[in-house]
Input
Amino acid sequence: MDIASAFGMSEIALQLLVGLSRAMILFIISAGLSLILGVLRVPNVAHGSLYMIGAFAAYSVNQIVGGAAGFWLSLILAPLFVALVSFVAERVLFCHLYEREHLMLLLFTFALMLIFGDLVKFFWGVDYKSVTAPDMLKGSVMIFGLPFPAYNLFLLIIGPVVGFALWLFVSKTRIGKISKAASVDRMMVGALGINVSWVFCTAFVIGCFLAGLGGALIAPTMGITLGMDHTIIMEAFLIVVIGGLGNIWGALVGALIFGVTQSIGVMLLPQFAIIFPYLAVVIVLMIWPKGLLKSVW
Output
């Protein structure tokens, strides 16, 4: 099928922008997972649950504060709440398990995912929740002569901002540089007198903060419900794998592939659009089994 003949160039460009806006959400979540994988070597299956908690926390903030202020505050308070939960989990549980085998860590985080799911059910119930974007992010703006959702444009802006902030943390701060060193040789970092445990804690909390931010950002675009963590954790792991395990910029590349291929699927075969990103994953791994960028594992 000739896409250009079936759709105008403007429609194609607009659909790709929609895919890129979704890719920004996936990047924010996957970057947090990749940071944890790269520094701690922990395959954190509960990362998706923290994303879900972020979405529910954003709903609560919006309910309490209300209006545009509630939305903007939720983008700050919901990720901070997730960061607090992750800090407690890391100090009480994770810090005792870093030397265990990956399979044990995988099973432990899976159990944690189930616990978080029950806690969400206990505090927020089983009903669907929803968050409304502020007036300035409702409606659409004209791009290429066609209406484009204003909230998607906001996501296209916030994604690079978060990516730049993450780059500043990893490359320009002392703790970020130590985290990179610990991902290569944690024993040597410890031998230099650096408290590796707190380095790991910082990386874990920041990674989980990004999961909570992703949940808060996605809240106005979909129903908030139990089980929303299952799909996102599968997608995030696939993105991290095709980008290169533990490579934050690989997560960006993987997220872009995921978002754009789904948009292409919507244009070609809407009823099977969800299959296209997974086909892209299969093709990438057949050609580059270790991912597109260098893995730190």
User: Anything to note?
Assistant: The chain has two domains: 31-226, 228-297. Residues 31-226 form one domain.
